[in-house]
Design brief:
The complex is a heterodimer of chains A (265) and B (460). Chain A is an alpha/beta fold and 265 residues long. Chain A contains 10 helices and 12 strands. By secondary structure, chain B is an alpha/beta fold. Helices cover 24% and strands 36% of the residues of chain B. Chain B is built from 10 helices and 19 strands. In chain B, helix 1 packs antiparallel against helix 2, helix 2 packs antiparallel against helix 7 and helix 8 packs across helix 9. The chains are: A alpha/beta (265), B alpha/beta (460).
Chain lengths: 265, 460
């Protein structure tokens, strides 16, 4: 069965009705890594938000199925429990909630949904210690408040750590490379690569080809003005890097919108 | 200035209160100064009457429901029923309760229930006010008569009422250079009246004196059962040069209780005072903290967390009086209001002429969790001086939608996400409490206050 099947997905910003996604078709099978690239304002992040259930958008046409179930009918938390994970472009700081407590609450909520026994403190900490090594996360960061005062790289590593612990079937990485220097990028990417297990699907959203040197995709899609205008393999990403986005937009018959508004964040 | 006459509800209980206070005074043989203090206080509160919402200090807090209730003092002797009820209530404190080895004093409806002097350095005086007034009243005469703490505040109704009913409370005197390493607990338990008895009222007055370079942590907890009760509490603290106090107030009375409490701190040079107020209980709770920085280089920190749900009303008033140069004050009060709960924050910073190099920072943040909850915030700066740094800020808002979504995207239900964020909002103040036992108690208490059960965090 397909992991994710997006069909003619149209979505607009709830507040003002501006249509951002204008007919997305995308199928991800288990184990596949798909990259979605595109210029600012093309709808990349909106796609990630709509798939993960962020409030503020309305789907006006089309749909998305996750393992055969109607993904868009599920509230955000049910999507997460069913196995969809969004690595945020801008991870939220939550003062007063320790990273460890947050992770244990989340993992046990998800395990309960899956009919697995909840992890006690000892089992959880063993799991956490193992996964933290994967992203080179210091223990001090685990005991601090979620993302509070974390550097850009630490925040993104924390996203990958959450992904490793929550063990999703589909991971959506929204511009995981933004704001990272090369070392931070390498650590985050190697964490992601360690989670490629032949079953987990990934949707890697990025503006730059650079990330795809580290997380090598099976498929690359170019998004422009709310549609996938070209798909190919990893070579397409290199072509984009060399030539920029304009040649594809011209070929698709429209220019990128002047404003780079990406809707509510 | 003429004011409209207070409503009859605010007047009608006054004669009965005056009669009750006069009767108490007649039962307590006292030196002339104490007789005079009580009788003039009766005259004062009769003249003042309950404050009305026309009074700027009580603008947001309507006392009519309190004034309409006919409260009575408990008999002089603690009954077996009271003792049993007090023990049951005290058990709610868990590890803070009975088994704790720290020096402590427990009162049931204002009467001393138990005093455990604990193990503490010699020279410390820790007694009930009732005992001191009976045996050695001269020991507290000056503190009671001079009213040294209240230069900047006009005497208000509840202060006069407290003086008129002066009887119970705790007296603590810490000699110079002594550091109390264990926190000192004072518990005030209000137990429900018997079937044919009137709702109970308690007027309690505590006096703490810290001599030069002494230090301590004092925890005052107010507990109560169901049914209406009135706790009128007042604690006066004097800090000599270099003395340090951490004061924690836990206001945890029952859902129908009325609570009016004031902590006044007079600080000499280079002293440090930190106050932590946690106000959860009661139908109507008013928590006042007044700090006077009456020496150079003094430091005051005022922390507060007030939580009101259903139809509770919690009012926090603070006054920081920078009377002399180079004082520093830091204040953070947070309110969480749910249901039809109502909160008030009124915080005034006064910088007197000559108090140069004052550094005062005040912040009030309120979280409104329901459409029917309400909070009024009134930060005030009154500066009579140049060369000072004073900042204040007040925000009132709902939970951050981005944070709620972040938690939902990790599988938490919207209710659990909101509860966790609300807990986090309050925990900032709990973390500042100097006692690990009190922090653990407050963490559990705050979790229990939330509409959703949150798992207790594990320690690593």
């Amino acid at each position: 069965m397909n992991l994710l099947e997006v069909t003619n997905l149209h979505a607009a910003i709830e507040e003002d009705g501006t249509e951002i996604l204008k007919g997305i078709d995308l199928t991800i099978r288990p184990g596949e890594v798909h990259a979605v690239m595109g210029p600012n304002g093309s709808g990349k992040s909106t796609l990630a938000h709509v798939l993960s259930g962020r409030p503020g958008y309305v789907v006006t046409k089309g749909g998305a199925r996750f393992l055969g179930k109607d993904l868009l009918a599920m509230p955000a938390e049910i999507r997460a429990r069913e196995g969809v994970f969004l690595a945020f472009q801008y991870p939220v700081e939550i003062p007063g909630v320790s990273n460890t407590y947050f992770l244990r609450t989340a993992v046990n909520t998800i395990r309960k949904h899956r009919g697995q026994p909840e992890l006690d403190a000892i089992d959880f900490l063993a799991l956490l210690d193992g996964k933290a090594k994967l992203v080179e996360m210091e223990e001090a960061l685990l005991n601090r408040s979620v993302n509070e005062g974390f550097s850009g790289g630490e925040k993104k590593r924390n996203e990958v750590l959450q992904m490793a612990i929550l063990d999703p079937k589909l991971a959506i990485l929204d511009e995981t490379d933004s704001g990272l220097d090369i070392d931070a990028l390498r650590i985050a990417a190697s964490g992601v690569n360690a989670l490629r297990d032949g079953a987990r699907g990934m949707l890697v959203i990025t503006h730059y080809q650079r990330l795809l040197d580290y997380i090598v995709p099976d498929f690359v899609h170019v998004l422009s003005d709310g549609r996938i205008v070209k798909s190919g393999d990893k070579e397409l990403a290199k072509e984009l890097e060399a030539k920029g986005y304009s040649w594809i937009e011209k070929a698709a018959g429209h220019a990128a919108p002047a404003a780079a508004g990406t809707g509510p964040r | 200035m003429t004011r409209p006459a207070p409503s009859t509800a605010l007047r009608e209980g006054i004669p009965a209160l005056a009669a009750s206070a006069a009767e108490l005074a007649a039962r307590r043989p006292s030196p002339p100064w104490l007789q005079k203090l009580r009788s003039s206080a009766i005259a004062d509160f009769e003249a003042l009457g309950f404050p009305s919402t026309n009074d700027e200090d009580w603008r947001f807090t309507n006392l009519a429901p309190l004034a309409r209730t006919a409260f009575a003092l408990a008999p002089d002797e603690v009954s077996l029923a009271e003792r049993t009820a007090a023990l049951e209530l005290e058990a709610r404190l868990g590890s803070l309760g009975l088994s704790s080895p720290e020096p402590r004093m427990a009162f049931a409806n204002g009467r001393l229930l138990r005093r455990n002097a604990g193990v503490h350095p010699p020279g410390i005086f820790f007694e009930s006010l009732a005992t001191v007034l009976r045996v050695a009243p001269e020991r507290v005469e000056r503190a009671l008569v001079t009213r040294s703490h209240e230069k900047s505040v006009p005497r208000h109704f509840f202060e006069a009422l407290g003086d008129a009913f002066l009887d119970g409370g705790a007296v603590l005197q810490v000699p110079a250079g002594i550091h109390l390493t264990e926190p000192l607990f004072i518990l005030h338990v209000s137990t429900p009246p018997g079937p044919l008895e009137a709702p109970r009222m308690v007027h309690t007055r505590s006096l703490f004196t810290f001599e030069e370079n002494s230090s301590a942590t004092v925890i005052e907890a107010y507990l109560g059962g169901s049914g209406p009760s009135l706790m009128n509490s007042r604690t006066d603290v004097t800090l000599a040069r270099g003395a340090r106090l951490q004061h924690v107030k836990l206001q945890l009375e029952g859902p129908d209780a009325f609570h009016v409490g004031r902590l006044s701190v007079a600080q000499a040079a280079a002293s440090h005072a930190t106050s932590h107020v946690f106000s959860f209980g009661g139908r109507l709770a008013r928590n006042e903290v007044a700090v006077t920085l009456s020496g150079e280089g003094t430091f005051a920190e005022l922390n507060g967390l007030f939580c009101a749900a259903s139809s509770q009303h919690v009012d926090c008033h603070t006054l920081i009086d920078h009377a002399l140069p180079r004082g520093t004050s830091v204040e953070l009060y947070k309110g969480a209001l749910d249901g039809t709960g109502r909160g008030v924050f009124d915080g005034k910073i006064l910088v007197r002429a000559g108090a140069i190099r004052t550094d005062a920072r005040q912040s009030n943040r309120n979280l409104v969790l329901s459409d029917n909850a309400l909070v009024d915030s009134k930060p005030q700066l009154e500066i009579h001086n140049n060369d000072v740094r004073c900042t204040h800020g007040s925000t009132t808002g709902r939970l951050d939608a981005d944070a709620v979504f972040y938690l939902r995207s990790r599988g938490l239900s919207p209710e659990a996400a909101r509860a966790l964020l609300t807990y986090a909002f309050g925990s900032e103040l709990i973390e500042r409490v100097p006692s690990a036992d009190v922090r653990a108690f407050l963490e559990n208490h705050l979790r229990a206050w939330l509409p959703v059960n949150l798992a207790a965090p594990e320690s690593r």
